[in-house]
């Protein structure tokens, strides 16, 4: 990025004479809504101990608090040549410049850009790139190259070499890691400095996101990327099937009768908790496809083409990815399912977990198995054998997993005969019929058991199921403007948003046990973090806790 000298406005406790008479050039008076400001040739990252001017997205105008007789420039994160110099209203710029020359940390006459200068690649790594704006490395949900992340510092105000060293050390300890990214956040619940690691080196063009992870709360201020010279960290080679069931650990189970789109056997993963009488079944998200173009050219669905086995489960580092999905967040103290048993069902059929067809698409080299319906049924039958004494079951999912959880609800009731089954659907709505692509042969709810389920409207299913099962609870969640489903379903964003309002109103009006949570704004899926509020300020974590615990005050927001 081209170096430039950006003036950062500093508020000083000025009394008496006009501010522009107190300093020699190039200090200049600058207008501000609430104070007299002075410009100084230094740069910051918009994160100061005073006012932050939001009008400059790249550099920020850091401001010292008013009514302070003197202050230091140490909070200007990139102004190393001025750092730790005390500034007073009576100080001339000549004096300031002289102090600057004596400063031990005066590195160069040229001013640095907003990024921290002096960061170096540790031994064995190459400094790949630094983003040129408010950007994150890349998508960390569903991207095969993403492995995991951890909080380097909860409260750090700047990125340091120690943070870089810690991040690459974390990469060296993570199987398959090939690239480490240090991300500086503001207002991100997990911390101010986060290390995210990936299984391959990525180009700078993949840095697309300026909000918190998963489009959540927080803002990305900068990121620094380092590539491992030796390539991926060697990974262990697990056996095709894990047979020892250890508590609080993800274990893959091959399940007879399950098939991915290529006709190969798949299975599921389980994470059991000692003494638990609860089970959360999570269905993986991942689009949908219905012909050669959408399945094999555009690749609109996860894991197509290809198989999904224990090797895939570990190669994609699914255990570390799904621990961020809130119902599976065993280490999250706010998760009401923290001590439940978990089961995760992969998505490799492109049919919303509900298709039942084998079809030869024109252009494809082999038949496509849309067998999600039988897969989930077989997985649940296996769970009945593995997990005994259950008293509560939740079937849940995000995106395609939400569609699947609705379509598989009655199968869950049948599998866990006599056990209460509740439903949690995150971003699984459409004004259209789910039957619009016959090639998938989607299986729909039994109308005898759900008389108000209408195949002309997928959204009628969750309302009808709630009306037919009043002892269970049904939760819906969505952004007000979903950025994915309209494209998948072929509807306009405006029509989708209107349908969402209609559906949520119907749940509130026509059921006693279906409620919803809406976040205003653009995005897709909510369960990968709980750092969301509804328009009225109500928190997502509270909504989910009241849903799970049968709180009589559970309500829509």
UniProtKB/TrEMBL annotation:
A Pfam cross-reference name: PAE
UniProt entry keywords in alphabetical sequence: Signal
Sample GO molecular function, one term: hydrolase activity
Span of the signal peptide: 1-19
Highest taxon of the lineage: Eukaryota
Name recorded for this polypeptide: Pectinacetylesterase
């Amino acid at each position: 990025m081209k170096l430039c000298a950006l003036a950062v406005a500093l508020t000083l406790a000025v009394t008496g004479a006009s501010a522009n008479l107190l300093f020699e050039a190039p200090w200049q008076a600058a207008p501000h809504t609430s104070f007299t400001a002075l410009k100084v040739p230094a740069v910051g990252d918009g994160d100061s101990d005073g006012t932050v001017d939001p009008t400059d997205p790249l550099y920020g105008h850091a401001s010292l608090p008013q009514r302070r007789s003197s202050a230091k420039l140490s909070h200007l994160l990139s102004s190393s040549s001025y750092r730790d110099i005390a500034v007073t209203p009576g100080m001339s710029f000549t004096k300031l410049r002289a102090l600057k020359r004596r400063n031990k940390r005066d590195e160069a006459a040229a001013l640095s850009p907003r990024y921290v200068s002096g960061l170096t690649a540790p031994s064995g790594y190459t400094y790949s790139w630094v983003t040129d704006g408010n950007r994150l490395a890349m998508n960390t949900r569903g991207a095969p190259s993403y492995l995991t992340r951890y909080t380097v510092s909860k409260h750090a105000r700047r990125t340091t070499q120690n943070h870089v060293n810690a991040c690459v050390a974390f990469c060296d300890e993570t199987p398959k890691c090939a690239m480490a990214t240090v991300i500086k956040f503001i207002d991100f619940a997990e911390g101010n400095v986060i290390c995210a690691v990936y299984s391959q080196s990525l180009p700078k063009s993949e840095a697309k996101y300026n909000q918190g992870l998963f489009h959540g709360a927080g803002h990305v201020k900068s990121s620094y990327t380092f590539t491992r010279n030796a390539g991926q960290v060697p990974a262990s080679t697990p056996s095709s099937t894990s047979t020892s069931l250890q508590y609080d650990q993800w274990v893959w189970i091959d399940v007879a009768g399950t098939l991915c789109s290529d006709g190969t056997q798949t299975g599921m993963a389980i994470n059991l908790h000692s003494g638990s009488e609860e089970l959360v079944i999570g269905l993986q998200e991942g689009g949908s496809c219905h012909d050669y173009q959408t399945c094999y050219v555009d690749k609109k669905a996860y894991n197509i083409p290809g198989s999904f086995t224990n090797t895939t489960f570990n190669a994609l580092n699914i255990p570390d990815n799904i621990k961020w999905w809130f119902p599976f967040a065993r280490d999250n103290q706010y998760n009401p399912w923290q001590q439940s048993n978990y089961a995760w069902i992969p998505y490799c059929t492109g049919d919303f977990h509900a298709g039942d067809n084998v079809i030869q698409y024109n252009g494809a080299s082999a038949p496509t198995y849309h067998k999600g319906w039988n897969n989930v049924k077989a997985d649940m039958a296996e769970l009945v054998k593995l997990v005994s004494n259950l008293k509560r079951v939740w079937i849940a999912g995000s995106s395609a997993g939400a569609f699947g959880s609705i379509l598989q609800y009655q199968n869950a009731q049948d599998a866990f005969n006599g056990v209460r089954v509740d439903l949690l659907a995150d971003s699984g709505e459409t004004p259209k019929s789910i039957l619009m692509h016959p090639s998938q042969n989607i299986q729909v709810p039994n109308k005898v058991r759900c008389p108000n389920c209408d195949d002309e409207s997928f959204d009628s299913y969750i309302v009808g199921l709630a009306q037919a099962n009043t002892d269970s609870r049904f939760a819906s969640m969505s952004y007000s403007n979903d950025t994915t489903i309209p494209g998948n379903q072929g509807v306009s964003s405006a029509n989708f948003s209107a349908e969402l309002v209609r559906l949520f109103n119907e749940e509130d009006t026509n059921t006693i046990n279906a409620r919803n949570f809406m976040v205003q704004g653009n995005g897709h899926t909510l369960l990968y973090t709980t750092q969301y509020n509804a328009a009225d300020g109500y928190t997502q974590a509270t909504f989910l806790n009241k849903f799970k615990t049968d709180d009589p005050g559970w309500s829509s927001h």
